[in-house]
Amino acid sequence: MTNHASADPSAVLWDMDGTLVDTEPYWIRAETELMNAHGLSWSEEQGLEFVGNELIVSARMMREAGLDLPAEEIVETLMGNVIEQIRASVPFRPGALELLAELKAEGIPNVMVTMSYRPLAEAVISSCPPNSFAGLVSGDEVSAGKPDPEPYLRGAALLGLDPADCVALEDSKPGLASAEAAGTIAIGIPHFVDLEPRPGRILWDSLEGRGVADLRRLHAQQSA
Predict the structure, then answer these.
(1) Residues contacting 181, CB < 8 A, separation 6+
(2) Do 23-88 and 11-22+91-223 fall under one CATH topology?
(3) Is 162 in the active site?
(4) Which Pfam families would you find in this protein's record (predicted)?
(5) In what order do the strands lie in the sheet with 202-203?
(6) Residues 78-93, mean pLDDT to the nearest whole number
(7) Which of 121, 174, 127 is nearest to 152 (CA)?
(8) What is the pLDDT of residue 97?
(9) How far apart are CA 22 and CA 186, in angstroms?
């Protein structure tokens, strides 16, 4: 019989936007305000096309839509706007805080793996219960962003772990592709954008009602 210690996943690698916190509406509001300030229109549909992208990719798309600012300035402006909104109110996704607390109680470390930049990610981490996260990989610190496997490979490497022993939680297509390519036990939790069911792909409706027991079960199945 397997004991719990070896049945546990080594770590949980969390995407941030749309998985831990619901900041997508904050980004769309920031994009809309910036475009409107320059006399340009912007729709929620356009904003949803950006979900899971690297920020610089989104900034270039906004430039293509007519925004005449340097891409780096667009990123800084959007991020500053979203950080302000987060400081006012952090919209955690259903079940996220409960799962974080249970993982902490069970001694399973969490690492944030996000395409958002470090200042924004740190603003979110600081609004979580103390010591919720053992590490952070942010979008401004990787050479290739999601859907490349690098972010999740780095997330596991931060703690010296094999990606195959880590669970990754993701809501976006690029993010889930990145986690799968890195060889993690990748769980897709679609939020704004549907994720395509495929043989072997794990999809959950929500983190609500999900706990360490569910992660142990998946880890055991993958290890078998």
Answers:
(1) 147, 148, 149, 152
(2) no
(3) no
(4) Hydrolase
(5) 135-137, 110-113, 11-14, 166-170, 185-188, 202-203
(6) 93
(7) 174
(8) 97
(9) 19
User: Out of 8, 15, 22, 171, which one is annotated catalytic?
Assistant: 15
Please tell me the predicted confidence (pLDDT) of residue 4.
Answer: 44
Q: Where are the domains of the chain?
A: 11-22+91-223, 23-88
The helix (H) or strand (E) run that includes residue 187 is strand 185-188
What CATH number was assigned to the domain covering residues 23-88? 1.10.150
Amino acid at 130: P
Give me the mean pLDDT over the 181-194 stretch.
95
Q: Which residue in 17, 22, 68, 148 is the catalytic one? A: 17
Residue range 7-14: mean pLDDT, rounded: 95
Please choose, from the candidates 34, 17, 1, 10, the residue with its C-alpha nearest in 3D space to the C-alpha of residue 171: 17
> Which pLDDT score, from 0 to 100, does residue 6 have?
57
Residues 185 and 156: beta-carbon distance below 8 Å: no
CA distances in angstroms from 142 to 2, 13, 114, 117, 175, listed in the order given: 37, 16, 10, 10, 14
Is 194 designated active site?
no
Residue 112 phi/psi, 5-degree rounding, is: -90, 130
11-22+91-223 is a CATH 3.40.50.1000 domain: yes
